[in-house]
Amino acid sequence: MSLRLGRGWGVAAAWVILILVVGGAVFADTLAPYDPLEQSLRNRLQPVSWQANGDWRHPLGTDQLGRDILSRTMHGARLSLAVGCIAVVIAGTLGVMLGLVAGFYRGVLDRLLMRLADIQLGMPFMLLAVLIIAIFGASVRNLVVVLAVGGWVIYARVVRVQVLSLRERSFVESARALGASDLRIVAQHILPNVVPSVTVLASFAVAQNIVLESALSFLGLGAGPRTPSWGGMLADSRAYLATAWWLAAMPGAAIMLTVLSINTVGDWLRDTLDPQLRA
After folding, report:
1. Which domain holds residue 106?
2. What CATH number is attached to the domain comprising 231?
């Protein structure tokens, strides 16, 4: 009982954090106290407000160019969440469609798609990302493409396995005996049964994409220096770790709390949508 109650509080805290992060990202233009690109060398490297010599006008301090850390963190959340969610939508849509086709029709197409998935899984993601971005250039669009290309495989493989089982079930055989078309069987009888698994996968994939976007931005393969990002803020803080700890701590804490909250909500969704775990 106490364990379940503790987990309930954890899920509630995760939802609160997610609401604050999403709200801060969506309304960053209104809520952020400063322009994230506004520089003021007079106010450079100001510590957090609760530390000696801190200024409450900059609660989380300023960076080496005098830019407000709080404002940049809020605008960075917009980029991370947008890239993570859009990439999941693209990868999930592509992966689910390919998984449905491969599992339902099997044969040569199934073997071809699964071998393609095996080849991609055998390639290190960062190597693939560097290759694509080196060819097409660093931009938000290319970042989304990289994450989508790297993420469709897991959806395709999970959906394919479920479809292979579902296509032999009695309700599918009954629909086929009544003359239902393949499209109707997939849309009305198979797809609704794979949606819960895809939803859980998507929730975890958003968290993974946030980490990958931050890593690519840290390596200089993200949206560019004029677009605030958590990974870019971490990259800028490398030379000041010994003298200005808040430059790395604030975006790092934002990444940690956001990813942890999304994973916690993903666990809750898995338990809620899986009838065996719910029982």
Report:
1. 12-26+65-278
2. 1.10.3720.10
Task: Classify residue 93: in a domain, yes or no.
Answer: yes
Count of domains in the chain? 1
pLDDT at 275: 53
Q: Which residue has the higher pLDDT, 13 or 180?
A: 13
**Predicted pLDDT at 1:** 42
**Chain centroid to CA 78: how far?**
12
- Nearest residue to 69 (alpha-carbon basis) of 251, 256, 240, 213: 251
Position 56 in a domain: no
3 state SS of 262: helix
Name the H helices within the chain: 2-26, 28-31, 69-105, 107-121, 125-136, 140-166, 170-177, 182-185, 191-218, 230-236, 246-273, 275-278
Cα distances (Å, whole numbers) of residue 19 to 22, 77, 207, 257: 5, 12, 15, 12
With H, G, I as helix, E, B as strand and everything else as coil, classify residue 62: strand
Cα–Cα distances in Å, from 227 out to 156, 208, 245, 279? 33, 21, 22, 47
Both tokens of residue 76? Answer: 């960075």
In a domain, 4, yes or no: no
The span from the CA of 183 to the CA of 67, in Å, is: 55
pLDDT digits (tens, 9 = 90+) for 141-169: 888 888 888 888 889 888 888 888 887 77
Which of 118, 150, 117 is closest to 131 using CA atoms? 150
